[in-house]
Amino acid sequence: MRSLLFRDMENLSAYLDRQISQSERTRLEIRLQSDLVLAAALEEIRQTRALLQRTPQRRAPRNFTLKPRMAGIRPPVPRLVPVFSWASAVAMVLFIFTLGTSLVGQFPFGATAPMLAVAPNGIGGGPPIAATMAPANAAPATLVPAPPGTDKTGIGTSTPEAYVASVPEATLPSARSVIQPPFAQKARNKPLSLWLVIWPGLGVLLGALAVFIRWLNLRAFQRKNPLG
Amino acid sequence: MDEPALIQDAQHGNLEAFNSLVLAYQDALYNTALRILSDEDLAADAVQEAFLSAFRALNSYRGGSFRAWLLRTVTNACYDELRRKKRRPTTPLEPETADGDEVESPRWLSDPNGSPEESLDQAELEHAIQHCLENLPTDFRAVVVLADIQGLDYTEVAIAVKKPLGTVKSRLARARLRLRECLQGFRELLPAAFRLEEKSSI
User: Fold this and answer.
1) Which of A82, A106, B44, B143 stands 20 to 30 A from A133 (CA)?
2) At which of B89, B114, B134 does a domain end?
3) A42: Cβ–Cβ under 8 A, 6 or more apart, which residues?
């Protein structure tokens, strides 16, 4: 039996699929009427094609629908969320700054001798340190006029208490002003300590608001896309 | 189903619209993948991957046959799977009887539709076709699956395999000839209705 050229087979295959031009089609049909080998080949290709078309179609074993997470879809972030998040962060930074400032103000870094007068009694209940040191430093020279019966330096008084008691009332305010700074500082710190409460409170509140809005938004998104 | 409207919505990120398209085409994509890969699990993976890629690349779809466009993504996914399989070949674990014979897949024998004889005929036919398809080069296999099993025309096949029409025409003719030869080997096994002529004139 005569074998056919691949070119003929290609044309027969395309002829079956109606994928050749009208002129080629007419030419091939004329040949098919006279060429039995060509006609038999066409029938075989037709059978093969019919067999393939009868291949059983399977159903998909499952649904291949995409979930938002698979598709990389995330719920849009509401505009208020970044605003609240940043405001919360700023509040916390301000809190840390305020706390730092307040701590620096409370410690006696670089305190001078008068500050020592704060101690009402010496260590172990002894005489006040300032009082014991006073004669050696500046007090007698500047603050206190010598009471009668003592020498001008005040060294002659029997005890420091006696020395303080002997100081005229008029001279005390200036001495007390040296003792008072801690109380004055406390008064000055009052607004600062208020901010120490306000800033963290504000920070936590804004942060919680940001989280809450995000959660509400996520719930709404999940309700809209139940597969996600 | 208003396909153009669904495609347009999906292009704007509407996942629900895209999933409607998935449900409409998943059987076609799965069958294509199954015939190219000859493995149900790999086929399912390829289809999932194809739909994911399609969703991501949906804006590159510029009209024409959406079916062909989707089948192109699944064909690409199948080629990827075949390359991966080639790099890491695996031995399938088929259940065996006590004598060491392979147990045929229950799915192979069971079909909820039709009589047991019909089911068996269909199973024999499917087995024969699948065996012959596996012996084809991948490029030929993809073309014949798309044209003869999925019923795409030459233009759609050309889109799906990204080859010129002439190449599609030539590959399809060669694939049919090879399948013809192979299926003749199954002549005795095929049901009477599917038997090919014993002696080829080609």
Assistant:
1) A106
2) B89
3) A12, A15, A16, A32
